[in-house]
Amino acid sequence: MTTATLPLFPLHTVLFPGGPLALRIFEPRYLDLVRRCFKDQSGFGVTTILEGDEGGAVTRLATTGTLARLVDFDPLPDGLLGITCLGEERFRVLRHWQQPDGLNLGEVRYLAPEAASELPAELAHLADLLREVLPKLGRGYAHVAARYEDAGWVANRWAEVLPLNSEEKLALLELEAPLERLALVAAWSARQPPAEHV
């Protein structure tokens, strides 16, 4: 497992591998980061804020995050920059610090990618429901490559669209076994409707 220094984007959300993330960028530190990512074809780490604010001081971050890769951008009518990212590898934050310009950096260790695992027949209905739900969630999912036969991919998409809080989503991200994640989202999906949009 490799280590790297990665710019971090702390948020009150959780990004899953293979999933979309739409952001509105206006702070100079993040505009500079986006420019560098486009120029270098690099990504940044999305980590969940456990204590603190997105626009201010972050006092505690989750130790598990996901690499985000820029796939689209759009100048917005309000003058802000809209970007769309896709989640890639998960990582563990070994240590993090803040530059003078306010940008957070972290020394991270990438986790091994999850191997594809077959969707159990008894949970195939979750993939069928996703086929109906995802097209209704807007253009963010236009960049997501469909893998309805993969248990981990199906689990990640349900983890995104179910109305769970950040702590519950983070607990799902931290699970090492895709089938365990799928079993949990199956239990939650039986009692909660999916969110209307991402």
Description:
- This protein has 198 residues and is of the alpha+beta class.
- The protein has two domains: 3-110, Archaeosine Trna-guanine Transglycosylase, Chain: A, domain 4; 121-189, BPP1347 like domain (LON domain-like fold), CATH 1.10.4060.
- Helix content is 28%, strand content 34%.
- It has five helices and six strands; from the N terminus they run E-E-H-E-E-E-E-H-H-H-H.
- It has a five-stranded mixed beta barrel.
- Strand 3 (43-52) and strand 4 form a beta hairpin.
- The radius of gyration is 17 Å and the shape is globular.
- The mean pLDDT is 89.
Number of helices: 5
Strand order of the largest sheet: 1-3-4-5-6
Count of all domains? 2
Question: In angstroms, what is the radius of gyration?
Answer: 17 Å
What is the molecular shape? Answer: globular
Task: Give a count of the beta strands, DSSP E runs of length 2 or more.
Answer: 6
Please name the CATH architecture of the largest domain.
Answer: Roll
Strand percent estimate: 25-35%
For the record, what is the CATH homologous superfamily label of the largest domain?
A: LON domain-like
pLDDT average, as an integer? 89
In the CATH scheme, what's the topology name of the largest domain? Archaeosine Trna-guanine Transglycosylase, Chain: A, domain 4
Gist?
The chain has five helices and six strands. The chain is an alpha+beta fold and 198 residues long. The longest helix is centred in the N-terminal third of the chain and has 13 residues.
List the helices and strands and how they pair.
Elements (H helix, E strand, L loop, with lengths): L2 E9 L8 E6 L2 H13 L2 E10 L5 E18 L5 E18 L5 E7 L13 H10 L17 H11 L4 H9 L3 H12 L9
Parallel strand pairs: 1-3
Antiparallel strand pairs: 1-6, 2-5, 3-4, 4-5, 5-6
